[in-house]
């Protein structure tokens, strides 16, 4: 697929919300992949999230080429006892943001390719 401009993502930035009615935390987890232009076979990419607790997770994937391919996405989660969560102080009125809702536990996507919004801009 490399010859058609299809690669895995170059990096990902994941933000966390401690509660559904709260602002996104200011410290996202950043992860950069090691790009491999020689081996076109599928591979696992594990994004370490540092055992961060959250009710919502938002990850932004950055293009390494014109197209980005995902074969499957899964989330490993665990139940957290509420007394173990450190609550951050936030304003009572969260800012309006448009974002895609996420699910916890495990979700899968079928094989998909997503085009870069601007194929001439390197993200």
UniProtKB/TrEMBL annotation:
An annotated GO cellular component: membrane
Record has Transmembrane helix as a keyword: yes
Membrane topology (UniProt): Single-pass type I membrane protein
Domain Discoidin: 1-77
Main location: membrane
Keyword hit for Transmembrane helix: yes
Keywords, ordered alphabetically: Disulfide bond, Glycoprotein, Membrane, Signal, Transmembrane, Transmembrane helix
Compartments where found: Membrane
Region span, Disordered: 93-123
Comp. bias intervals (Polar residues): 99-123
Protein name, as recorded: Discoidin domain-containing protein
Origin species: Oncorhynchus mykiss
Lineage: Eukaryota, Metazoa, Chordata, Craniata, Vertebrata
